[in-house]
Write a structure and sequence with these properties.
It is a single chain. The protein is an alpha/beta fold. It has a domain at about 5-35 and about 95-200: P-loop containing nucleotide triphosphate hydrolases (Rossmann fold). It has eight helices and nine strands. A five-stranded parallel β-sheet has the order 2-7-1-8-9, sandwiched between helices. A four-stranded mixed β-sheet has the order 4-3-6-5. The longest helix is centred in the C-terminal third of the chain and has 16 residues, at about 170-185. The model has no long low-confidence stretch (mean pLDDT about 90).
């Protein structure tokens, strides 16, 4: 059985990764969404084990020491990371896995999974991004400025990704991501085993 496809989705805070992710989940039910671990406090409406695994800083650092995280990074004043075991097991079962992580974490993933697909979600404009961040109403002015400046620096990292998708309309952005996933799964480098099937006079897509 071929391993699943590892899809990494990054983008600045406020760009709408969560909204696009919900649409992807509805459109592609077999897509496994890895849940990140974080030391930040839950925002209104966020649920433990669905949006994030919320842990204390001491526990998070212990996970780092034990090698239990696939990647981790400190973003703003909090830690974020991806639990390793569940992701690797899903890939081995042939299941496609989506990681929604920041640019630091994506860099760590790329060094270990060069065959992964790296997508960057962009806002229609920086002004739109700023309005979205302000619209959350959950940050002080100081934190808003810090978050927006960090978001701008993240956007500069987009050139290191395989694809970019502009999130002007979440439904359209999600469809573009699904098209990218389908195209990636048809790349010859991911399907070299099919040549052996043909050499054996087999059928690639038999009913």
């Amino acid at each position: 059985m071929a391993e699943g496809l590892l899809i990494v989705l990054s983008g600045p805070s406020g760009v709408g990764k969560g909204t696009v992710g919900k649409i992807l989940a509805a459109e592609k039910e077999d897509l496994f969404f890895s849940i990140s671990m974080t030391t930040r406090s839950p925002r209104p409406g966020e649920i433990e084990g669905i949006n994030y695994f919320f842990v204390g800083e001491e526990e998070f650092k212990k996970k780092i020491e034990q090698g239990d995280l696939l990647e981790w990074a400190r973003v703003y004043d909090d830690y974020y990371g991806t639990p390793k075991e569940v992701v690797l097991n899903s890939l081995k079962r042939g299941q496609d896995v989506l990681l929604e992580i920041d640019t630091q974490g994506a860099g760590m993933i790329k060094s270990n999974f060069p065959d992964g697909v790296f997508l960057f979600l962009l806002p229609p404009s920086l002004n739109q991004l700023k309005l979205r961040i302000i619209g959350r109403g959950t940050e002080t002015e100081e934190k808003l400025n810090k978050r927006f400046n960090s978001a701008y620096q993240e956007i500069l990292e987009a050139k290191g990704y395989d694809y970019f998708v502009v999130n002007d309309f979440p439904e359209r952005a999600a469809q573009e991501i699904l098209h990218i996933i389908r195209a990636e799964k048809l790349k010859m480098k991911r399907n070299a085993h099919l040549i052996e099937i043909l050499r054996g006079d087999g059928c690639i897509q038999c009913p």
